[in-house]
Amino acid sequence: MQYTKDVLYKIKALERVLFTYIKIIERDDSMEKIILKNGQEFESIPNGIETNEFTKRRIFKFISDLPYDEVKTSFKNSSNIDEIDYILSDGSRRTYIDCAKLKELSQQYGVSVDEETQRDIYIAVISTDILERDLQKVKENIIYTEIALTEVYESMIGGGL
Fold first, then answer.
1. pLDDT band for position 111 (50/70/90)?
2. Of 43, 44, 68, 98, which one has the fewest beta carbons inside 10 Å?
């Protein structure tokens, strides 16, 4: 059977579309991701986690459709990052429990995440310094203590003492 040039062109176009969908499905099946303690998930780019023991920093590179401010809010909340799960493409899990504080969040545009795909990514730089993590917990305890003392004081004043 002989096809016209128009039909051959349409067949080639359909083959390209089908090939693209297959690549997307394969990428989704083998996607690595990071999951914050609050359950929020982000797609990690390949080799998207770097740890520097000397500077006590861990860098997470990931993709998200969320606006910058929402991502920053999630990572600034120290209780969200004190436990971060990293799910590898084979389904295995690694848990980081040494993250203390978001130091920097930036965006990088048009990064090659594989041979055929460029995406805008986020880069979160997080401190893994144990002293900084402990200091953060002390600050949180002070805030809770101040709130409790304020409530006690207000109840004493309101009670007519």
1. confident
2. 68
